[in-house]
Design brief:
alpha/beta; TIM Barrel
Length: about 475
């Protein structure tokens, strides 16, 4: 009989929740989750580094469309790794009319990540996407389903149309996704479409529909997802404002602390009784990374908890080892600091930033960076006067942003999360002037509690250590 997981490992950042971490958690019998955000860039940079360990090659050998896999391998693999001091290859940025090359890359990258996470065990694996990063959704989800992903999780928006995408692919049909475009006429829908038959080599593979979990921050959004989605919602993750990464803004009039952080109040708390009445499984997230909080969640009727920060700093995560070492040392001392920054993210959502010397959390470090937008995952599609679709980001060069209709005041304090998050996992871009993109780490407010997972005398811990602590105390 199928049992719901008590612990969902968070799908964190870009490459932090990698296949190694998800594999370790799922092997333990809980739900391991890979991050699907920017997987095409992660994939290409791993190939440019020489595919250490041959893991990508192994995933490509299992991919059901071998000619597609061969094209990508031949274009991006660098035997022995790219020369030291050279830049990673540039990819075209995602857009409404996606180039076939980029669609294929997204399909393959998501397949390989899920394949590797599933390798060697029979337990389900999930993949996490940000609803706001809409342009790669159709190709990414198809690739994950080709690999047999068991769960799709999505937050950072209201993912009403994702269940219909899962249904379409499971029925071997084309899938469509409505793109949010700023300023578009109300009577015009901008739709992205992907027909698997245009990419398959031979008959379409039969695909199982994964379970869909919507990540939401309130009872209202939970009800909206269940009533308005274009397909079945199998469960909900209720994420509170202490969770790492992007947070929902506070409800009601914005109030700030003396340090400039948003104040969350009673209106931002969820009513668990109302959640139970919705009749679907739910997991609680944000400050639930302990055995006591897991017991509390189960006692109030939740299926379990989602935990991110504790897993972000374990040995299997993709976070750079030097960053892990420094932050774990700080948590042992109880001095790690997380700041909820209202301005850092170009999405308009508050974003939790770990304050760490030498990273872009320091104003001087970020101001020394030359503004460039060459990844574009968080760009905002907007309607242009000629009827076309343009793309802008409040963290791109200011003159460019304003020329595209952006307001200069909206760009104040914004940071390029796309490049910073790739730097977090060891794939920082090298610029022509010799500069290297700085890291910018995110974590939940309970970061200092991760010291509890360290055995006496140890300076690191494993995913299994976290799971044993949560499940058995």
């Amino acid at each position: 009989m199928f049992q719901l997981p008590k612990i969902i490992q968070g799908g964190m950042g870009v490459g932090v929740s990698n296949w190694r971490l998800a594999n370790a958690v799922s092997r333990f019998g809980q739900l391991g989750v890979v991050s699907g955000t920017a997987l095409d860039s992660i994939f290409v940079r791993r190939l440019a580094d020489g595919d250490k360990g041959g893991h990508i090659r192994r995933g490509l050998d299992a991919f059901p469309f071998p000619a597609m896999a061969r094209r990508i391998w031949q274009e991006y693999f660098v035997d022995g790794g790219k020369p030291s001091g050279s830049a990673y290859p540039a990819l075209p940025m995602h857009r409404h009319a996606e180039p076939r090359k980029l669609v294929e890359l997204s399909i393959v990258a998501n397949f390989v990540e899920v394949f590797l996470a599933r390798e060697g065990h029979k337990n389900p694996v999930g993949i996490n996407f940000l609803e706001k990063v809409q342009l790669p959704h159709l190709a990414s989800i198809y690739g994950a389903m080709l690999a047999g992903v068991g769960y799709v999780l999505m937050g950072a928006g209201i993912p009403l149309h994702i269940p219909g995408v899962l249904n379409a692919y499971a029925a071997q049909q084309p899938a469509e996704y409505k793109l949010a475009v700023t300023g578009v006429a109300q009577d015009r829908d901008v739709v992205m479409r992907l027909d698997p038959a245009e990419y398959a080599e031979g008959a379409l593979p039969e695909l199982a529909r994964p379970k869909f979990l919507a990540i939401v921050s309130s009872n209202t959004l939970a009800t909206t997802m269940l009533r308005r989605s274009n397909g079945r919602v199998d469960g909900l993750v209720i994420e509170g404002p202490t969770a790492g990464g992007h947070n929902a803004p506070p409800r009601g009039k914005l109030q700030l602390t003396d340090d400039g952080e948003p104040v969350y109040g009673e209106r931002d708390r969820v009513n668990v009784d109302d959640l139970r009445a919705l009749g679907v499984p739910f997991w609680l997230a944000g400050g639930y990374g302990s055995a006591g909080k897991l017991r509390e969640a189960l006692e109030c009727g939740a299926a379990g908890v989602q935990v991110g920060t504790a897993f972000a700093f374990c040995r299997e995560s993709g976070l750079r080892e030097d960053l892990k070492k420094e932050l774990i040392a700080q948590t042992v001392a109880g001095t790690a600091v997380v700041f909820t920054d209202l301005r850092a993210s170009s999405t308009g959502f508050p974003f939790k930033v770990v304050q760490l010397e030498g990273t872009a959390s320091e104003a001087a470090v970020y101001e020394a960076r030359k503004a460039v937008c060459d990844l574009g995952y968080l760009r905002e599609p907007y309607a242009m006067p000629d009827g076309g679709i343009g793309y802008r980001c409040a963290a791109e060069p200011l003159d460019n942003y304003v020329a595209k209709g952006g307001k200069a005041e909206d760009a104040v304090g914004r940071k390029c999360l796309c490049n910073a998050l790739l730097a977090n996992v060891g794939h920082a871009q090298l610029r022509k002037d010799g500069s290297v993109e700085p890291a910018l780490i995110t974590a939940g407010n309970d970061i200092n509690s991760i010291a509890e997972f360290l055995a006496p005398g140890n300076s690191s811990y494993s995913a299994a250590d976290v799971l044993r602590s949560l499940l058995y105390g």
